[in-house]
Structures are given as C-alpha cells and as structure tokens.
C-alpha cells in the first residue's frame, strides 16, 4: 500500500481515466483525492461524459482508502481548475503525487516519487519530482535521476513548495525578475522559448497553470528532479484532449521503463545543462512548418492556443 497521497485530475475522458486509475488501484494509496472540472455548457453531451468519468472513480475504489472528491458543477477552465485543485490537495496533505487523466505511469513511478519526496522533504531547493524523461533515458547506468526542468506528466511536490505558487505572476514585469529567471533557466534557448509563454500567462491570454508553476520554481532558484528513464506515457493525444490535439513519433512512441531499486542518488544537485541542450535539440530537429514544436509541447506546457497560429 502506498503511504503517499495521490491527487487524480480528471475531466471528460473515461477511456484514459480508466487506464490511469487501474495503475492507481495497483498502487493502493491510503489517501486518494480526485478533482474534476465541470462540463462546458457549449459542448453537447459533455455533462454525461463527465459524469461517466467520475463514476469510474466512485465505483472503482475497492481497497481501504480515504477518498476525497472535488467535483465542480461549473467549468473553470484548465488554469483555475487545476491550480485550485492542487491548492485543495495541499490544504489537506504535506506532500503528494499528482496525476492527470492522460498520464499513464509505470508502477515503479509511485515508489520513485515516494522515496524522493521523503529524501528531499526539507531541502527547499528541490521543488518537484517528475516522472517524465522526454529523451527516454539519460545516464541511467550512472544514476537514477538528475536535476533540471521537470515535467508535469506525472509529478510530485510538497506543500512547502506549492505555497509559493503565484498564478498571476505579479513580479514578472520587473526587469530584475526577468534577469533572475534568465539566469535560473540556464540556457538562452530555453529562456527564449519560455519568455512568450510567461508573457501570455501573466496577461491571462493563456489559460494555463503550469507555466506559472515553472516560473515559481525559477523565481525561487529551485530545481526539479527528472528520472533517468521515462516512467510516464501520455496517452491523451487525439483522444478528446483539451490541450493534447496533436501527436508525433517522439511523444506517442516514447517508451516507459521500470525504475530499478534501490535508487542510485546523484552527487551533483545542479541542473544538468547537457540534458537540457539535448532535449531542446531533439524537440527542434524538424523545420517549424512541420508543427513539431506545437505538437510536442501542446500538453507539456499547454501552449497550443498561442503557438498554433504561428507555426
């Protein structure tokens, strides 16, 4: 049985929700929190689909588990629905794992998160634990994880970190803050990529929550853990996803590998700049007109709305 609480974020995809929930059932968490945004009034039949999705959870918990739900009647949209659900989660727990309804984890993902949440519980520099590795594997023969830009395809964090989250990014207009972010992000390429996203998140033209989370980590000079092998597969492309409207070989064929235990801990807690550079190159190896930039990151950073018109 898993001691670490899980927050499961669902909406209108009973098919992917069921697959991810089956993995959660195998982990048997003692506490399961489930949050669901409300149906959109403009989408005919969505209320029934949302109800069917929620029913999977309500009828599927068959182990000794404290189940808490936050089921919205109205649709808040991605940004508010997710960030407020995480707020609710950490009003109740000190640390936990967060899974969306299209992020299918390997069973070892849960133990990986649980062990590292405990190990870095009081290290304020470490702000999140990610289950995704978009290169598939990186230095796996040397260590079990490394530090850098962690993803949100299955991740974990602590109340101490999330309490610093600022959805409005109130300090972003300050030139000194921009310089701090640029220094923390490590590479000019990634700063140039994230800059328009931060601008759009700040002025509310982008309905998102994760750009603000990454900004928060950088603002506080924090870092994230990424696994040496990929532990989570996104199964939401082309299956009714609100933000996963595209797919390509790199993402859809990204393999999942079980983590080996005991974990081999790295000696260096600084960001792995080599990995960041290689990941950037991998994501940009095709020409912009191929739309690979949009497709790869439409879920990873929820930016399809502002980039689809450009690419």
Topology:
Blueprint lengths: L5 E5 L3 H14 L3 E6 L9 H15 L5 E6 L6 H15 L2 E6 L2 E3 L2 H12 L6 E5 L14 E4 L6 E4 H4 L12 H11 L2 H15 L7 H10 L3 E5 L4 E3 L14 H4 L20 H11 L8 H9 L3 H4 L4
Parallel strand pairs: 1-2, 1-4, 2-3, 6-9
Antiparallel strand pairs: 4-8, 5-10, 6-8, 7-9
Description:
The protein is an alpha/beta fold and 311 residues long. It has one domain (6-307): Alpha-Beta Complex (Spore Coat Polysaccharide Biosynthesis Protein SpsA, Chain A), CATH 3.90.550. 40% of the residues lie in helices and 15% in strands. The protein has helices at residues 14-27, 46-60, 78-92, 108-119, 159-162, 175-185, 188-202, 210-219, 249-252, 273-283, 292-300, 304-307; strands at 6-10, 31-36, 66-71, 95-100, 103-105, 126-130, 145-148, 155-158, 223-227, 232-234. The protein has an 8-stranded mixed sheet, with helices on both faces. A two-stranded antiparallel sheet has the order 5-10. α1 links the parallel β1 (6-10) and β2 (31-36). The N and C termini lie far apart (46 Å).
Structure, briefly:
This protein has 12 helices and 10 strands.
Q: Structural class given helices, strands, pairing? A: alpha/beta
Question: How much helix is in the residues?
Answer: 25-40%
What characterizes the major β-sheet?
8 strands, mixed
Morphology: globular
What CATH architecture would you give?
Alpha-Beta Complex
N/C terminus separation: 46 Å
CATH class identity: Alpha Beta
CATH fold description: Spore Coat Polysaccharide Biosynthesis Protein SpsA, Chain A
Going by CATH, what is the homologous superfamily? Answer: Spore Coat Polysaccharide Biosynthesis Protein SpsA, Chain A
The ordered string of helix (H) and strand (E) elements is EHEHEHEEHEEEHHHHEEHHHH
Count every helix, treating DSSP H or I runs of 4 or more residues as helices.
12
- Residue stretches low in confidence (pLDDT < 50, at least 5 long) are 241-248, 286-311
